[in-house]
Design goal:
By secondary structure, the chain is mainly beta. Helices cover about 0% and strands about 55% of the residues. The chain contains no helices and eleven strands. It has strands spanning about 5, 10-15, 20-25, 35-40, 45-55, 60-65, 70-75, 80-85, 95-100, 115, 120-125.
């Protein structure tokens, strides 16, 4: 049984940084597309970033416009771990952040494309 467990969330002032982690257990996910989503209170879950394999050892990344230039997604396949570095945080980044995994990749980056989900980690940015 595959489990994804996020960590690294917390309370930070606007302009600060956080590094989120997501550890996968139960299966090696090196061939999977791994992504981050977030959900703010009263809003739908939205795509943040993903990292997907091209061939056997190359990975591409893609970011939502809302975080582009302020965030970096990366993965350590040896540790089966996904990361999201968030910089220049804004109050509107406040949300529960979820990591997710899917087989394959594509231009449609909606939650229904992802089969595996973590439980989420809260990020709160104060103004």
């Amino acid at each position: 049984q595959v489990q994804l467990v996020e960590s690294g969330g917390g309370l930070v002032q606007a302009g600060g940084s956080l590094r989120l982690s997501c550890v996968a257990t139960g299966r090696t996910l090196s061939t999977y597309t791994l992504g981050w989503f977030r959900q703010a209170p009263g809003k739908e879950r939205e795509f943040v970033a993903d990292i997907y394999p091209i061939g056997t050892s190359t990975y591409y990344t893609y970011y939502a416009d809302s975080v582009k230039g302020r965030s970096t997604i990366s993965r350590d396949n040896a540790k089966n771990t996904l990361f999201l570095q968030l910089n220049s945080l804004k109050p509107e980044d406040t949300a529960v952040y979820y990591c997710a995994a899917r087989t394959g990749s594509g231009v449609v980056r909606t939650p229904d494309q992802y089969a595996l989900w973590g439980q989420g980690t809260q990020v709160t940015v104060s103004s």
